[in-house]
Amino acid sequence: MNAIQAKLEAIRNQYMEALVKADGSESLQALRVRYLGKKGELTQLLRSLGGLPPEERPMAGQALNELRQEVEASLERQAVLLAHAEDEAMEASDRLDVTLPPRGRGWGAFHPVVQTMNEIIDIFVGMGFSVAYGPEIEDDFHNFEALNIPPHHPARDMQDTFYLNSGKLLRTHTSPVEVRSMLKWGAPLRIIIPGKVYRRDSDQTHSPMFHQLEGLLIDEDVSLADLKGCLNTFVGAIFGRPLDSRFRASHFPFTEPSLEMDVECFACSGRNPACRICKGTGWLEILGCGMTHPNVLRYGGIDPDRYNGFAWGMGPDRVAMLKYGLTDLRVLFEGHGSFLTGGGY
Amino acid sequence: MQISWNWLNEYCRIPLSPEEAAARLTVTGCEVEDIQRPCKALRDLKVARIERLAAHPERADLFVADLDTGRGRSRCVTAARNLKNGDWVPYGGPGSVIADGTVLGRRDFDSIASEGMMLSAEEIGLPGIADEFGILRLPQGFSAGEDLVEALELDDCILEVSVTPNRGDLLSLLGLARECLGVIPGASLKPTDMGEPSSGGNWPLSWDGLYLEDPGCPLYGLSLAPSVQIEPSPMKTRIRLAFSGVRSINNVVDATNLVMLITGQPLHAFDLDRLPAREITVRGAKEGERFTTLDSREHVLSDADLLITSGGVPVALAGIMGGENSEITADTKSVAFESAYFEPLRVSRTARRLGVGTEASYRFSRGVDPSRVLPTLSLLSNYLLGQTGQRVEKEVRVARTRTWEKRKVVLTRKKLHRVLLWDDMKEASAFLERLGLKEAGSSEEGLEFEIPTARADLAIEEDLIEEVGRVRGYELVPSRIPPLLRGTGHVGDEVEAHRRIRITAMSRGYLEVVTYSFIHPRWTEWLRIPESDPRCHGFPLANPISQDQSVMRTTLLPGLLQALQTNIRSGWKDPIRLFEVGRVFLPAEKEGDEHREILRMAGIAWNGRDRRILYDNSMKDDLLSVKADVVSLCQSRGLMPEFCAGREPFGHVGQTARVTLDGEPSGYLMSLKPGILRELEIPGPVFAFEVDIESMLPDRGFRFGQVVRFPAVYRDISLIASLDTTVASLEKEIRILGGPLLRGAVLFDVYQGKGIPEGTRSLAFSLAYGDSSRTLRDQEVDEVHDALRRNLAEKGFVLR
Fold first, then answer.
1. Nearest to B50 by CA among B119, B101, B121, B125
2. Interface of A with B in 43-82 (CB under 8 A)
3. Homologous superfamily of A112-341 in CATH?
């Protein structure tokens, strides 16, 4: 009995010493073979148990088993520890400078006007407006006549028009889509019309091609109050906070009354007489609007005695320029990488 | 339009500062864009009299003037040659300030000190009032030492007013005065009674008559100044005109302009002796008739134009400009003054077509007040007699084919309330009365108003609502959001698709651009697009601004290439990818159809130049990397594009693909022709795609796949195929021959070269076999796979 126990004790000590020294999976494997293998020390000891007197066998067997299990478990544990250590050593030697530039393509860039247009669309869709489209090459009827601008009328001077040889023209505003939509869907109607428009005009603040976003609401009993509500809400949403607004009387042939909406300068709120954005006036002109002229409703096939409505037209280019602090309209259409990516190079 | 504030106040007392009045006018619809004070800088300038003028003792080009300045004598040296003893002149002594802000002092001119200086018109801020070169000579009637600004009433400001096209009535002091009365509380109108001139009496010369042959001119009046002396206008007139932005010409022409500024009624002065006959006939022009206006431009007329003729000869383009043949000259002795009503659209049409815009045509186009046509002639004669001593006959000649009734418009409480949410009819009526409308009747529904003839823009009830609304103030209308009774709004397929596509493109590294819809006409040539291609036939603009932007694009490619060129020219060297969604414009497919506007997406990728690239080729784009972009873009809308070898006039012969969506040819993917790139001076390859996205607009939803629970079994296959056999056709072949158990075939190797016969390549696919209800046994798979190999071998492929 004591002899066995002593032997086990000796093996255990010997094993523990070796385990501590083991420095890799190979030496661990060697230990496993040495103690637990077919000819391993513990295996052999187990075989030798048969030579013990029967009354000693259970005790000795139990002790032997316990040692076997201990060896087994510690080998497992050590294997995990060693694997971790080995991995870490390997990882440490496989170091990558994480400040190296990324490989592959980065994010591109959005266009300020397209982005702004989308934001404006979302704001009005939230107020129940749906998006409508129409052709950019238009005819005189839809672009002028149906909008209460008869031939030769001086109001045509307000919009210098590009013509095609066929007599068709490039729409000077998105308003023709109002008429097309009224004819297509009738009343009630609540639409916004984003798109490109064209006028013969080119300088720092005018481009021969630019964008408009037009809105039209036709229903029974529509008031200027509704127009003010929708547009004030829009302004607050697009500039991120409620801004003061004022509505000035103006003239558009297709609305009566006609108004222009100015908003409080979001940069200086009128407090900086040298403000670059509002030129010290405290106000930014952002859109024209009004109650749809009964003649336009008639051209759209809608009974002006039953329905009325309001419309507005704004320049997303201008809104984008205000939002992003841009000063030259024309660079919007030149595709400069340095401009679009937000930095020089 | 420039308005003198002081002059305006002669017609309407305005109890506000010019700035306050401007703000109020702007808010109520008559925008004041700017306020200028040309004489603001002037300080301590005096009126002085030249006592003695002598030549400078040493300098032949100079004169020495001794001035009576009221407080003693001052001596000035001048180079001006228009002075004489006894002239009255503006004078600035040392310490005084002239218009440009210069402080005057003493200055020596070769031993003679000049104390300050005598001033020209420009130096007092009004260059336009000079009637000769040199120092401004003032009229008699001042006293030496009088303050110049007070004496000439220079303490004035100019309102720069922008008048909307519907408000022709505001193009006059009387009209503006009425507007001020209407919109400025506390303003009061000063009575101006011009009086109707008498007509029908005789003139002291023979006159054969006035004939109106065209409805474009329903009223024509003519007055006569039988003997005039042409000379510069009085100083006061010249100053008035200068503050109104009108150039002074001579007393007669200035008189017509001055009166026009007051009443808004343009007048024209004919040299009576130069009229071909003693009669005037207003008639339509003959097609092709020629006429030379007084600015020496010859115009070819159409039968829509309206002419003033005399003895059959045109003498004026009605309402626009007089003729060279009858204009006032320095020798003119007798003058006939025309005051007429011309139909706005006729004048507007001719002026626009001929590109001649004048103060007269501007006003006639917007409609003048017919009730002022004849009284303006009275005002003219009063002015000419009172201010210049020129006598005008009391009698005027008048021809008339029409009279004007005052229009009546009803304002109902209901509609007023509908728009403004306010319906105090009493107050509304008071607003309208101040604007010159008269309440002419009332009923339960509302009030009827008589509209002054000057306000042709007020024709329907909505017009009256606008007048009430703007005077009352739109700030008083509440603000409310209309309820969503009609349901929610819809972004719609086009916006949805565009959004998906642009986000996909941007996340794949593309810069979103917007380029012009019109391009240079030579792009078709640069891109070698042949006549037979519809893209060769973009619509040209009839009136482009520049050739660069003169034809509607038929493809998005030019805009993108031009943007790339712009970047390269400005020194951009990095790789760049550009992306655009926009419309192209193509002719109708068959006669009678509408033109086509097609929504496309397009992109180009360029690898940059002259820069060593980190990570080498893995960073470089090629046709296949851009193909991946096209696939992703289409997949973002639930569509899988197909590609096959194709041809484009501008595409690399060996690297051009046709893109098919939903079975329809929809665009191209290609490497641009190297020759074109050379010509465009773009170094290196450019990969481009352009795809119609109409078919991508509908939301197709998405069909999810079945969950695979039994793993597939894999077998490889490697075969040699002719170079003409495309991967797509091979994949298709394998799919068909592989039978129902074949789940997928993935190409994993392509080899061409040593060990493989010329004209062929080796392709290796990894095939996945599987069944949705069980795991396949190796043996089953082998059977199917062997069958596939046999079938392929039978098709002539060499299996390895």
1. B119
2. none
3. Bira Bifunctional Protein; Domain 2 (3.30.930.10)
- Nearest residue to B105 via CA among B92, B120, B95, B90: B95
Q: Report pLDDT digits (tens) over A292-318.
A: 999 999 999 999 999 999 999 999 999
Q: How far apart are CA B310 and CA B281, in angstroms?
A: 6
Contact B187, B20 (CB under 8 A): no
Strand partners, A194: A213
HSE-CB at B679 with a 13 A cutoff on CA atoms is: 12
**What secondary structure does DSSP assign to B157-210, as a single string?**
-EEEEE--TT-GGGSSHHHHHHHHHHHSTT-EEPP----PPPBSS--SS---EE
Distance from CA of A254 to the nearest CA of B (A): 12
SS3 category, B274: helix
Q: Which residues of B479-494 are buried (b: 16+ CB within 10 A; e: fewer)?
A: beebeeeeeebebbeb
* C-alpha B220: how far from chain center: 35
Cα angle, residue A309 at apex, residues A306 and A314 outer, rounded to 5°: 165
So what's the pLDDT on residue A277?
82
Asked if residue B165 has a cis previous peptide bond (ω within 30° of 0), the answer is no
Question: Which two structure tokens, joined as six digits, stand for B466?
Answer: 């606008």
Instruction: Note which residues in 117-176 of chain A have CB less than 8 A from chain B.
Output: 118, 121-122, 124-133, 135-137, 150-158, 162-166, 168, 170
List pLDDT tens digits, range B497-526: 999 999 999 999 999 999 999 999 999 999
Q: How many Å separate Cα A103 from the centre of its chain?
A: 22
- Nearest by CB to residue A345, choosing from B28, B166, B572, is B572
Encoded tokens for B153:
């009433």
User: What is the rounded distance in angstroms from the CA atom of residue B356 to the CA atom of residue B322?
Assistant: 12
Q: Are the beta carbons of B416 and B428 closer than 8 angstroms?
A: yes
Which residues make Cβ contacts (< 8 Å) with residue B54, sequence separation at least 6? B63, B64, B65
Closest to B447 (Cα-Cα) out of B468, B429, B467: B429
What's the full length of chain B, in residues? Answer: 800
Find the residue in A nearest to B560 (Cα): A335
Nearest Cα of chain A lies from the Cα of B677 at a distance, in angstroms, of 19
Does the distance separating the beta carbons of A338 and B595 come in below 8 Å? no
In the predicted model, is pLDDT for residue B486 greater than 60?
A: yes
Chain B residues touching residue A345 (CB < 8 angstroms) = 572-574
C-beta separation of A177 from B494 below 8 A: no
Could you tell me the pTM of the whole model?
Answer: 0.88
- Is residue B453 within 8 A of residue B370, CB to CB? The reply is yes
Residues of chain B positioned with their CB less than 8 A from the CB of A298:
none
Task: Give the one of A104, A113, A162 whose C-beta lies nearest to B514's C-beta.
Answer: A113
What are B1's strand-pairing partners? none
Distance (Å, whole) CA B599 – CA B637: 15
Please give, rounded to a whole number of angstroms, the shortest distance from the CA of B593 to a CA of chain A.
13
* DSSP states along B500-520: HHHHHHHHTTPEE----SEE-
Q: Cα(A41)–Cα(B215) distance, rounded to whole angstroms?
A: 130
d(CA B219, CA B364): 13
- Locus of tokens 């096939």: A301
For the purposes of burial, counting CB atoms within 10 Å of the CB of B298, is it exposed (0-12), middle (13-18) or buried (19 or more)?
exposed
The top-scoring range by mean pLDDT among A40-49, B447-456, B605-614 is B447-456
**What ipTM did this prediction achieve?**
0.89
| Position B774, amino acid | R
User: Is B31 close to A130, i.e. CB distance below 8 A?
Assistant: no
